[in-house]
Amino acid sequence: MGYFSGNSRFTLAPHKQAGIHLKTFRESTRTSDFTVSSEIFLKPETTAEMIREAADLLRDHVSGVLVTDNQFGHLHMSTLAAASLLIGSGADPIVQLACRNRNRIALLSELLGAAALGVTSLMLIRGNRVPDGFNPRPKAVLDVDATELIATASKMKNDDRLQVLPDFFIGGVVTPHAPKAGWNPEKLRKKADAGAQFVQTHVCMNIPLLRTYMKHLVASGLLRRLSVFVSLAIPGSADDARWLCENRPNIKIPDDIIRRIGQAADAEQESVRICVEQLQQLAEIPGVAGAHLVATRNLATIPAAIEASGVCK
Fold it and tell me: What is the per-residue pLDDT across 278-287, written as a single tens digit (0 to 9) for each?
């Protein structure tokens, strides 16, 4: 989700022979028991070659690569430009569009552009407020909300004015919590009614909380219409994990996990081990369709965690 904008750059690790991706994120969700996606660092200095290198690293290990939309006010290249580079490199992009940044005409233009590029998966969000200190401060647009944008993208799939109808796999975001008895997931139901087909959680590494949340979602019947993907972080250090919790809304990394990372001789490798454990636990939770992995420093930790977990067989 575009958390860090520092000067750190991922390192490449040996990977399988590159090839065109056989399944899109949409196809994998429909046919696999457990699907894993990830995202790449987009920063002001991100180049086309850096995106191609990231695609080389990730495409044989994940089914989709999220490209964020200037999330948290972090400027970077156009999301569609990044998506085009990923497609050209054999990776399947999940294109995020935020209501904060554009009016409805601009959002429609982006959706049409995504369809023309062959983008199959969308993550449509409201967009968080731009952090203080951003100067000159941009104005939030918010001409539509996330549910309206989801409905717009869904209607495009049946718009007889379009010569080629896009088969978008449409997603939104959700924050896991511990619901009270009788809880009605009204906001999530509205997104499903609007046309959402999957949701991705904010980073949540509290497995007991996730079990409780998913139990309520299963009971609600919504998972007959929605696939749920849980976001996990692979922090480069305990300081990274604390920074996420303190500076990014809705992120849940328990204190015991942060302590475990901080006490390890190799913090990054310990984070990979934690991710492996949590991937295996997620695969056993009813209703969880897969995971979305976020590496705060080193993208190579993502394929390492996936391969060690054995969840994608």
Answer: 999 999 999 9
Total domains in the chain come to 1
Q: Which of 52, 91, 15, 28 is nearest to 307 (CA)?
A: 15
Q: Which two tokens stand for residue 104?
A: 């409805």
Tell me the range of 36-50, 156-170, 210-224 where mean pLDDT is highest. 210-224
Residues 6+ apart with CB under 8 A from 172: 123, 124, 125, 146, 147, 150, 191, 196, 199, 200
Give a yes or no: residue 249 inside a domain: yes
Higher per-residue confidence, 153 vs 8: 153
Angstrom distance (rounded) from CA 247 to CA 207: 21
Range of the domain at 252: 25-309
Phi and psi, residue 287, nearest 5°: 95, -15
Rounded Cα gap, residues 73 and 93, in angstroms = 21
In whole angstroms, what is the distance from residue 189 CA to residue 167 CA?
A: 21
234: left (phi over 0), alpha (psi -120 to 50) or beta: beta
Q: Rounded to whole angstroms, how far apart are CA atoms 264 and 61?
A: 26
- State the DSSP code for 72: G
Question: 88: which 2 tokens?
Answer: 């050209």
Distances (CA, A) of 271 to 95, 122, 207: 27, 28, 15
Q: What is the CATH number of the domain that holds 167?
A: 3.20.20.220
Task: Give the whole-angstrom CA distance, residue 60 versus residue 21.
Answer: 7
**Cα–Cα distance between 120 and 117 in angstroms, integer?**
9
Using one digit for the tens of pLDDT, what is the confidence trace for 9-44? 333 333 333 444 458 999 999 999 999 999 987 888
Query: What is the Cα–Cα distance from 118 to 196, expressed in whole angstroms?
Result: 19
